[in-house]
Prior knowledge:
Layout: H1 9-18, H2 24-42, H3 57-74, E1 76-78, E2 83-85, H4 89-98, E3 102-105, E4 112-115, E5 128-129, E6 135-136, H5 141-149, E7 156-157, E8 161-162, H6 175-194
Parallel strand pairs: 5-7, 6-8
Antiparallel strand pairs: 1-2, 3-4
Helix pairs in contact: 2-3, 5-6
Pfam families: MtmB (PF05369)
Protein name: Monomethylamine methyltransferase MtmB
Organism: Sporomusa silvacetica DSM 10669
Amino acid sequence: xxxxxxxxxxxxxxxxxxxxxxxxxxxxxxxxxxxxxxxxxxxxxxxxxxxxxxxxxxxxxxxxxxxxxxxxxxxxxxxxxxxxxxxxxxxxxxxxxxxxxxxxxxxxxxxxxxxxxxxxxxxxxxxxxxxxxxxxxxxxxxxxxxxxxxxxxxxxxxxxxxxxxxxxxxxxxxxxxxxxxxxxxxxxxxxxxxxxxxxxxx
Length: 202
């Protein structure tokens, strides 16, 4: 039996073209909820609504087992091709082992290290602030992002998206979409500069 290797973006791209075809509604309203419900029962997963992050070791292990089984069984849905990208359990483990243990966001004084943490870790988590993909007006885009960047607790920015660019709708796969994405990056960097957080991760 061949040893599984960590998958590349090229491997995944090819699988997105040849995987089994499924309608998005069937995936969203049948495949995922039915599989999740079955695995919840199989692994006896019961969440305590008063505890956001579980600390019970058996529950943590069962959540991981259920998640791994769900990924292997269901795969990942590609909305562009309406096909399922399949992975074997061996490929998932190989990718986990090959994944970096830490990564640095930002540079200089604003550099922040993101590393693996357990629920017993005493180090505080990184705080990512921002509208996180929410639509923002051209008029207020810069000020909105500056308000996040100037908060000392915020380590990195997850930016919003422009509702319009020079009054035009940034229609997907159009020149206006490209212009909007470039403008977003430029304005977020400007917002960080204004807040005195030059080099902050984005």
